[in-house]
């Protein structure tokens, strides 16, 4: 999206569960941020993590394809097991 005139887009979030709001508020207080800033920070961290995970999975797929070309094949369940082991 393009921001013009120096104004940032606004979003309204409705029906936030009380427990979620309290968790965000608690973290915001600890981090010395406003609730709004904490929500923006949380979204940015989530998206960064999501992009990193997607990039890592793509690299794993490329490696797997290269290994398959060399006659070394893993079943989908073996790949899943390896990925889950790497997460722990």
Question: Describe it for me?
Answer:
There is one protein chain. The chain contains three helices and no strands. By secondary structure, the protein is mainly alpha-helical. The protein is elongated, with a radius of gyration of 20 Å. 1% of the residues are buried. The model has no long low-confidence stretch (mean pLDDT 84).
How is the secondary structure organized here?
Blueprint: H1 18-31, H2 35-69, H3 76-87
Helix pairs in contact: 1-2
State the main characteristics.
88 residues; mainly alpha; 69% helix
**How much helicity do the residues have?**
55-70%
The residue ranges in which pLDDT falls below 50 over 5 or more consecutive positions are: none
Instruction: Quickly count the helices.
Output: 3
Structural class: mainly alpha
Shape: elongated
| Topology, number of strands | 0
Q: How far do the termini sit from each other?
A: 37 Å
Q: In angstroms, what is the radius of gyration?
A: 20 Å
What is shown here, in short?
The chain is mainly α and 88 residues long. 69% of the residues lie in helices and 0% in strands.
């Amino acid at each position: 999206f393009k921001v013009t005139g120096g104004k940032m887009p606004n979003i309204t979030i409705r029906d936030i569960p009380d427990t979620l709001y309290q968790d965000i508020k608690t973290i915001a207080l600890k981090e010395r941020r406003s609730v709004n800033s904490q929500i923006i920070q949380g979204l940015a961290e989530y998206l960064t993590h999501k992009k990193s995970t997607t990039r890592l999975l793509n690299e794993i797929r490329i490696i797997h394809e290269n290994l398959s070309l060399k006659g070394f094949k893993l079943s989908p369940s073996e790949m899943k097991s390896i990925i889950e082991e790497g997460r722990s």
